[in-house]
Amino acid sequence: MEKAKISTIQLFILMILFQLSNSLLIPLAMKAGRDSWLAILIAAAVSIFLFFIYRALYLYYPSLLLTDYTEKIIGKFLGRILAFLYILFFLYCAARVLREFGVMLLSFAFPETPLFVACALMILVVIYTVFKGIEVVARTGELLFVIMIMLAFFLFLLIAISGLIDISNLKPAFEDSSKVLNTVFTETLYVPFGEIIVFTMIFPYLNQAKKMGKTGVAAISITGAALALTTILNISVLGVPLIERSLFPLLTTIQSIQVGGFLQRLDVIFILALVIGGFFKVTVYTYCAVIGTASLFNIKEPSKLAYPMGLTVLFVSMIIASNYSEHIQEGLKIFPLYVQLPFQIILPVFLLTIAFIKNRKKE
Amino acid sequence: MSYRKFLKKMKPKEQREDFKKGEPKSIGTSITENLNIIKQKTGNSPDIIIRMLTFSHDPGVSTAIVHVDGLVDNPTINEFLVQSMEDSVQEKLEEKDLFKVFSEKVVAVSSLETLKDWDSLFLALLSGDTVILADGKNEALIASTRGGERRLVEQSDSEITLRGSKEGFTESINTNTALVRRIIKNPNLWVESMNLGKQTNTDLSIMYINGIVDPDTVKEVRQRLGRVDLDAILDSGYIEQVIEDESSGLFPTVTHTERPDAVAGNLLEGRVAIFVSGTPHVLVVPAVMIQFFQTPEDYYVRFPISTLIRMLRVFMFLISLIGPAFYVAATTFHQEMIPTDLLVIIASQTESVPFPAIVEALIMEVTFEILREAGLRMPNKISATISIVGALVIGQGVIQAGIVSPAMVIVVATTAIASLATPNYDIAISARLLRFAFMLSAAIAGFYGIILGLIMLIVHLTSLRSFGVPYLAPFAPLELKSLKDTIIRGPIWSFNERPESLHPQNPVRQGKHQKPLPPLKRRMVRADTKEGDKNES
Question: Which residues of A261-284 are buried (b: 16+ CB within 10 A; e: fewer)?
């Protein structure tokens, strides 16, 4: 751990930005069709329980990182192996997000730029940020959050006044509840909501531990609401068939804005949201991997790990899949069930149970 | 002998002490000897004036006054000091101790003190004081006679305001501290003085308001100044560069101002001012970034107007940072984002231009920087010529020759004006430098490059600190209460607290309910309102 503290408001913003980042841009919970917004809301509600699991773990070990207390809970040997696996998990997640980001960016804005260059430029900035530590990450988040909010208001206003919203696209609602629930537990719960597992690496930096519960619940609720609202907006503007075919529904929505003959093709706003979101998610994941490694292997200056870890993320993101459809396939079919489910839910529950039993014995 | 050892041998040994060993440290009793030492030390410089005086009191005892020509106030010495020395001796003929007589009776100068060691004697002498030596005395009397030709208090050239005080600081440190004292008449306004610079012995004062300022900040300032071991301090810029947090960064983490009202305002918020003798630029620490977009005048006009002006300044700063980069990115990578009609115009203009947008932009920007630098240090008459040549070269020649497109000229000119509109030169110059970096990143990766650059800039800025205060406070970390006086300038009656980020000892700035309460609003006036009531319609 580094010597630093973040405030509750910073944690709040970090959580929102982290969860929103790339999920704003990609089609979310589209398996549920026009009820996808409902799936998002349910997933958000369920993830509040998840959050309380992570919080309970944190309350047992308020000054330790996830990768530190695994050792305390299940013993030195197994604990360290688990911590190492978590670090790999964070690294892999960072690489996945980076890859997705790179492909998205190139596919609509820079068709002729090599993927490696786009990702490398991004990782340079990420490395620089991780090098500066969690305080800088949190403060940067505060500023970027303001930019994102302003963009959101601006866009919402433009969409509203350009008369694109067609509520009838949302009807009929509540069509097939099993489909919605199925989407929640196979997809949406893990991305983006389950990803708050990384915050077990950030909670110990909080300066007011008491307010953490409220902050987390508020952040998750707002994220859920924002994502659901975006999805509603997309569906009502584009309709389900168009969304299912588009890679980036939000981009399509933005591109359909035309106000007064000159406010059109606002792609730059999308690029802005995309870069900020991608940057933030990769940074938080990489940071957690770096700080975890530093504490696991007892490295005095975690910032020195920023370069090697950053470059690792870059190369992993290149070799992760041979093409984008393979990547998406992995992301939808394999990754949630075989990686995210255990790392985000099963293992924390398991850890919490043991911690609970151990701590009861002491009393 | 290895190369490194050789180098070590070549280095001259440090000669820190002016006084070599074996020389007397304190003043001796013989006046001739003492005067000889002064003459020898100063190399017989003719501007060191030594006058021998003999008083009727005891003809055997000779007295000398020593001062430096030009540094002292001549009338004070000739008319008052010497005269009153004579008078005092006349008055107290029985008293044997001359210095005692002087210190008791000579009231014509503002202060008299005795010194025993040569170091402080020379410091006083060279600061403009008059040294009085007497035979048989192993001490010297120092009369405060500082004066000489100084620039008068004038309006500052670099910070011009339409409203507010016209006074600007001068090169004299005493005048400067006095100018601030005249604004804040409060015994809690504390000044600490020190002397820095091994060769120049420059006077330096730090000023703060006890009870408002965070004591840790003062301690930090003292400590950082205490570390300074420079040869010379020719301007406050020297001090700034050795006490700032980020010495190699582009952004200033210390503000400086030429205006007493600005210093007073900052002191009242809980900052510390550093006055350096010989320069009208007073340093103020800690500095946050938003300060560089504020001027004292913002507080003197009504708040909606200054809010708008401050927003305009930040916008100007952004333009001067990424204006050309934006144009380069849009025309090189994202033509589809430009409205078609405009694109057609730009395309028809750039058709004959043989260079890509980035080269055009670099040519124009470099040309502009050259013109600006050339115009800056020229006498007025020549700079007019430069501006004519510049306008013709940029405005006409380059376009007619088809080297640069007119659209690019517009962009560069707008950027140039925007850069000049940033009120603080220090921050404007950082934008000026970064502009080139942004242009390059735009040429490499379009908007993506610009956005990445901006994120990197934000990360850099959030990591900066100035004397412990985060540089982007109160935005990051967020302090809601202090947001009133940032890009927006809230009404004066709402400034109830001092900025949180400075950790003021006394956070309450003023009483609550300062909002003006006129007796009746001019809405519909009731029929029973008395005649002569000022609020009747």
Answer: eeebbbbbbbbbbbbbbbbbbbbb
Shared domain check, B403 and B370:
yes
Say yes or no: A263 contacts chain B, CB-CB below 8 A.
no
- The pLDDT tens digits of the residues spanning A291-315 come to 999 999 999 889 899 999 999 999 9
Euclidean distance between CA atoms B400 and B167, whole angstroms: 48
- pLDDT reading at A289 higher than 80: yes
Query: Does residue B411 lie in a domain region?
Result: yes
Residue B288: band (very low, low, confident or very high) from pLDDT cuts 50, 70, 90: very high
- Cβ atoms of residues B419 and B308 within 8 Å: no
* B291 and B220 both lie in a single domain: yes
Class of domain A8-357: mainly alpha
Q: Considering its fold, how many domains does chain B have in total? A: 3
* Residue B15 confidence (pLDDT) above 50: no
User: B97 and B219 share a domain?
Assistant: no
Check residue B13 and give its pLDDT. 46
Q: Measured between CB atoms, does A146 come within 8 Å of chain B? A: yes
B132 belongs to a structural domain:
yes
> Residue A336 in contact with residue A191, Cβ under 8 Å?
yes
Using a CB-CB cut-off of 8 Å, the residues of chain B touching A261 are 339
Residues of B within 8 A of A267 (CB-CB) are 334, 336-337
In a domain, B242, yes or no: yes
Size of interface A-B (CB pairs under 8 A): 90
Domain for residue B479, yes or no? no
Cis peptide before A62 (omega within 30 of 0): no
CB contact under 8 A, A275 and B452: yes
Q: Do B426 and B384 belong together in one domain?
A: yes
- Alpha helices (H) in B340-379, listed in sequence order: 340-350, 357-376
What type of residue is B428?
A
Q: Are residues B269 and B328 in the same domain?
A: no
Task: Give the residue numbers in B contacting A (CB under 8 Å), as ranges.
Answer: 333-334, 336-337, 339, 444-449, 451-452, 455-456, 458-460, 462-463, 470, 472, 475-478
Asked if A259 is an interface residue toward chain B (Cβ–Cβ < 8 A), one would say: no
Q: Which of B435, B463, B491 is the last residue of a domain?
A: B463
Whether B270 and B324 share a structural domain: no
Residues B353 and B422 in one domain: yes
Task: Please give the residue range of the domain that contains residue B87.
Answer: 31-143
Q: Which of A21, A105, A106, A139 is the mutation pick for testing B, counting most B CBs within 10 A? A: A139
| Predicted pLDDT of residue B4 | 55
Contact call for A121 and B448, based on CB within 8 A: yes
Last residue in a domain, options B266, B299, B332: B299
Of B290 and B248, more confident: B290
CA-nearest residue of chain A to B458? A140
Which of B146, B79, B72, B137 minimizes the C-alpha distance to B111? B146
As for the ipTM of the complex, it is: 0.93
Structure pTM?
Answer: 0.89
